[in-house]
Design a protein that fits this description.
By secondary structure, the protein is mostly beta strands. Among the domains are: 187 residues, no CATH class; 103 residues, no CATH class. The protein is built from 13 helices and 70 strands. The strands form 19 sheets. The chain has a 5-stranded mixed beta sheet, with no helix packed on it. The chain has a 5-stranded mixed beta sheet with strand order 25-26-27-28-39, with no helix packed on it. The two termini are 34 Å apart. 47% of the residues are buried.
């Protein structure tokens, strides 16, 4: 017997084949706005836009669904981008003074399932160049690039430098043409003596090609001098002797004049006339926001129109004293004058206008402004110049994201009503429309709901590559907030003189939706639950408010009922030291079409809500805080249950999230005490919990099995840990709790101390087969009742992360209404049910109703990982249409995904997904029902990934290119797009080859992002998500973890960049 004790079963080839058909890990697309953008470019021929970031990424966008991504080898900021129009190529300038050439490159054909598919097409770096330093000069600052100009012929790149020289590179070879180099000395000799006066001309600030005469360029120097240079004869044709420091240049379309902007907040118009080599004075010079000192106009554009007056656009120029801190861009045309006021810094901007040579006027149709935190598009053809909502690149972090929720298979009727409710936000014709999205229409509509710090819930269309905003819900108008406008003692609108004076000058207009400041932090949304069949929504917030909302197509003014649930009604000696509750409005409030509040449940004390569950078929909501949990019947406006979970030593739970100084100090102290105590006591520690059938079963199970080599024994946690009463999860289930023959509604709740409470519910009408309607007078007086059925205490007191009841077939119970309306397979009610309880340290299945342990898995690897997120996912096979498996997905604090079969809890696969240092990304992760997921890689970006071999959401697009070959001929390749980061050419080819290996791979290319990629940015604030617990921070405080982190860092330093997939 002994010699077979540790024998392990061999791998089953058939099972391994099924795994390959079910599971595959891919990072597919990034949703949202690029983190820390630094450069902008536009290709008017292909109608494509490119954005560069400070982490060295380049992202190309066209029509919704058309996306490409490239990544420089070095994590250096991209300072400039320039397209080679129509060619699918672009040039990038990095902060390290290197110039890079990128192009869309198609890989070889690949065979998938015996069918030849088109090769992976990706944005790939093909060439690079760095200007050499000038001989005899120690510093390279003289050759530091300040500005790039690509001639219309796309064969010559002009490079302006800090030393005042202009260099010329052949494109695409990026080879220097020494005989063309223009040094500052050559210009200085032709200047009048009174202008020269021994002063340097300064760096080259601007380069612009003549719009009508090729081979002539304007060179603008910092000192103010502008030179019209003829490249063919290498001679200065005209000199414009400006005296004010230059910032930017722009030609008028005819080439008869140009405009330059200056650092004093003004701009000048210069006439270009033949025969006059020296121009001393401009035609006109204007400081639009003078006469007081103004900030520099960093960029200016001049666009002609057939209507007459040109459109002038410029950034900056604000009066220093009064509006020096504003981020503004001005649009002027004749008497129309608007100053766009943004909430973040202007990076760059361009206009979408006619570029055909035969056209006489520019006729700008749109203005695209790249800001530090969002992209703003202005419609220049509509009177008043309104802004256009973006179909993608929406700033997810317009207010900091605090929670998220994903809804699969949204019913068409709900989808239509949401679209109609948000129709005011629907986009007009989107000007950046290059390429064609070839992805088939989604088989089902998907919603991503994000809760925000300002009390809003945003609904996003997550069905495809483009994450499109559908509808925004605000909960602030339900309450009186700290910054309520009605409480403002002085309203400027009451003073017409003051209002008129403010509106006169400058004519500011607030534009953009990024607003990082919350009126009241208590409004923050912490939990969201949506029933897609009954159109009921529950949102819970930071101040203990739980709001039940219903969907309405009409505007409504009504009063919102408020019910108070005191979770400490039977406890004495506890005093809440945190924030006050939000005060509800005493008068009816207006609510626009969409989700409108039906009732507000206010928890007391007003602590942040940590868990919420909605069962619309029973008209019940359950909610939990750090003090306990409650059950509320929103149909009868009746509080059914309030249970306190506080331990007598849980004083920390009374301080609230906004009183963190003392809390953090105390939690750190107790963490170190627990570490010290566990080391001293070792294995002598005993558990002092009362015995029960559950603990006896646990003890028997522990004695019978040996600890596997990949597991370790779990140290029991102390019962007096702070925050032990925090309710981590609540759920409803129709199952067997009282006996094995009668099933009924139940409520389950799990806490931070490993306690699980199960209540049997008496819901009127459920026993007879259906819930009573609101008008039923006979049952209206009958209340829902809750009776404690089971109370489970996990042996090691690990926090309960998730509870899920499994039916007789071992599958999760369907959602409310799914079984009763034949929307899902009815659960098996003939065989015994079981409950799967996932704690931070292990997974365990108990039989019902006896609650005896059936099986468990200790998810504690050598690093001591802890479960952070758990989800039940259905994986479909790529080989068999009708085959699928229910699988448990676990995300740990180390950022890896573990997949288990249920109910046997057999490990299937493990993938490294998120870097373990990225605790904000781990805390923000949300799974979908079909095997995909989202997590924040920056405050403004979601990374989308897939664990399923069949279900992928990835770019599949088409771009028509017009690229010249080396011999001068042109070809028109068709590029199918992918979203893929390229480190270098050799790595690109290897990654493209890897897509052929898995037999379940689809024809669409996939994205591979290294864990140490800058796109997986670690520069995150902990406030970007509210689901961080004290345990998240403790992971990085223990000595063992510190040693492991140091060891891992040393290992990673010696390891080359690669894809970490097991």
């Amino acid at each position: 017997m002994m010699k077979f004790r540790f024998r392990r079963q061999g791998t089953d080839p058939q099972r391994e084949k099924i795994k390959q058909e079910l599971f595959a890990f891919n990072k597919t697309v990034e949703h949202g706005f690029p983190h820390q953008p630094s450069a902008l470019a536009f290709d008017p021929k292909l109608q494509l836009m490119a954005i560069g970031t400070k982490s060295g990424a380049i992202k190309i966008y066209g029509a919704p669904g058309v996306e490409f991504t490239g990544l420089h080898n070095d994590t250096t900021a991209v300072t400039q981008i320039h397209f080679l129009p129509g060619q699918g190529r672009l040039l990038s300038l990095l902060d390290d003074n290197t110039i890079h050439l990128w192009e869309l490159v198609a890989g070889p054909l690949r065979e998938v399932g015996g069918v030849k598919k088109e090769g992976v097409v990706s944005l790939q770096e093909v060439n690079t160049y760095s200007l050499p330093g000038r001989p005899g000069i120690e510093s390279c600052s003289a050759t530091r690039v300040t500005v790039l100009l690509l001639l219309k012929s796309c064969d010559l790149l002009c490079v302006g430098t800090e030393g005042g020289g202009v260099y010329f590179l052949e494109v695409p070879s990026l080879s220097l043409k020494d005989n063309q180099t223009l040094l500052q000395d050559q210009i200085t000799h032709s200047l009048p003596d009174d202008y020269r006066c021994g002063k340097s001309l300064g760096p080259v600030e601007a380069l612009q090609e003549h719009p009508q005469q090729s081979g002539k360029i304007l060179i603008g120097y910092s000192r103010g001098l502008v030179v019209l240079w003829d490249l063919s004869i290498r001679h200065a044709e005209q000199l414009f002797l400006g005296k004010q420091q230059l910032e930017s240049l722009v030609w008028e379309r005819s080439g008869n004049l140009f405009v330059c902007s200056h650092n004093d907040g003004g701009y000048s118009v210069w006439a270009v006339t033949s025969g006059n080599t020296c121009n001393h004075q401009p035609v006109s010079s204007t400081i639009p926001y003078g006469p007081f000192p103004c900030k520099a106009i960093s960029k200016i554009l001049w666009r002609t129109t057939q209507a007459g007056s040109p459109v002038l656009l410029y950034s900056g120029g604000m009066p220093r004293a009064s509006y020096g801190d504003r981020h503004c861009l001005t649009i002027q045309q004749d008497k129309d004058h608007v100053t766009l006021d943004f909430t973040s810094r202007v990076i760059d901007f361009f206009t979408v206008h006619s570029v055909e040579q035969e056209r006489e006027f520019d006729e700008p149709s749109a203005l695209v402004v790249l800001l530090e935190e969002e992209l703003v598009v202005i419609d220049l053809q509509t009177p008043g110049w309104p802004s256009m909502p973006t179909p993608y690149l929406a700033p997810l972090h317009s207010s900091a994201i605090t929670c998220s929720c994903h809804i699969s298979s949204v019913p068409p009727k709900l989808w239509e009503r949401l679209v109609n409710a948000g129709k005011a936000q629907q986009s007009r014709h989107w000007p950046i429309c290059g390429g064609k999205n070839l992805a088939p229409p989604p088989k089902q509509q998907e919603l991503l709901l994000t809760g925000h710090e300002d009390g809003t819930v945003r609904f996003w269309d997550a069905s495809g590559v483009a994450l499109t905003p559908l509808y925004k819900l605000s909960t602030a108008n339900v309450f009186h907030t700290d910054c309520d406008p009605s409480d403002d003692p002085q309203d400027p609108s009451n003073d017409p003189d003051m209002q008129q004076e403010e509106e006169e000058w400058p004519p500011f207009r607030k534009v953009g939706c990024f607003d990082p400041y919350s009126d009241d932090p208590r409004l923050g949304i912490q939990k969201i639950s949506l029933c897609k069949y009954s159109n009921k929504l529950v949102v819970a917030g930071t101040a203990g408010q739980v709001i039940v909302l219903g969907l309405s197509d009409e505007r409504s003014d009504h009063f919102v009922d408020v019910s108070v649930v005191d979770l400490l009604y039977d406890r004495e000696g506890f005093t809440w030291k945190g924030h006050d509750r939000l005060e509800p409005r005493s008068k009816p409030a207006p609510f626009p079409p969409g989700f409108q509040p039906l009732v507000v449940v206010q928890c007391l004390p007003p602590a942040s809500v940590t868990a919420v569950a909605l069962h619309a078929e029973w008209n019940l909501i359950a909610f939990g805080t750090s003090h306990g949990f409650g059950l509320f019947d929103y149909h009868r406006r009746n509080a059914v249950l309030a249970r306190c979970t506080l331990h007598p030593n849980d004083s920390l739970a009374m301080e609230g999230p906004l009183s963190r100084v003392k809390s953090l100090k105390k939690s750190l102290r107790q963490s170190f005490r627990r570490i010290r105590k566990s080391r001293v006591s070792g294995k002598k520690r005993t558990i002092t919990t009362p015995t029960s059938k559950v603990q006896e079963a646990n003890a028997a199970l522990a004695e019978q099995e040996e600890v596997a080599p990949v597991q370790r024994r779990i140290e029991p946690r102390s019962a007096d840990d702070s925050l032990s009463g925090v309710v981590r999860c609540v759920c409803f289930a129709d199952t067997f709790l009282r006996d094995g023959t009668h099933h009924g509604p139940t409520l389950w709740a799990g806490t931070n101390s490993g306690s699980v409470y199960a209540y049997a519910l008496e819901v009127p009408g459920v026993g007879s087969g259906r819930v009573c309607e609101r008008g039923g007078a006979s049952e209206s007086s009958v209340c829902v009742e809750a009776v404690l059925g089971k109370e489970i205490q996990l042996m090691h007191r690990a926090p309960v992360v998730s509870i899920c009841v499994l039916d007789g077939r071992g599958k999760p119970l369907p959602d409310p209404y799914e079984a009763s309306q034949d929307l899902a397979i009815a659960p098996d009610m003939t065989n015994a049910h079981s409950v799967l309880i996932a704690s931070e340290e292990q997974l365990k299945v108990f039989s019902l109703p006896k609650v005896s342990a059936k099986t468990k898995f200790k998810l504690t690897a050598h690093e001591g990982c802890r479960v952070r997120k758990v989800a039940m996912v259905v994986f479909s096979s790529t080989a068999q249409e009708d085959y699928s498996e229910h699988t448990l997905v676990c995300l740990t604090n180390l950022g890896d995904m573990h997949l288990f079969s249920i109910p046997a809890l057999r490990p299937q696969v493990r993938y490294d997904c998120i870097r373990k240092e990225d605790i904000s990304g781990i805390a923000s992760c949300v799974f979908t029902r079909n095997g995909q997921g989202f997590y924040l890689i920056s405050p403004s970006e979601y990374e989308r990934f897939s664990l399923s071999a069949k279900v992928l959401t990835e770019p599949l697009c088409f771009v028509q290119l017009d690229r010249p070959l080396d011999d001068g001929t042109t070809v028109q390749p068709q590029a199918n797009g992918t979203h893929k980061n390229q480190m270098d050419e050799s790595l690109d080819l290897s990654l493209a080859g890897q897509t052929e290996e898995p037999p379940s791979c689809l024809s669409s290319p996939i994205l591979d992002t290294p864990l140490d990629s800058p796109l997986s940015c670690a520069d995150l604030t902990l406030d970007s998500t509210a689901e961080l617990t004290v345990e998240d921070v403790r992971d990085f405080l223990t000595v063992d973890e510190a040693e492991n982190n140091l060891k891992n860092i040393k290992e990673e330093e010696g390891r080359s960049t690669g894809i970490l997939i097991n």
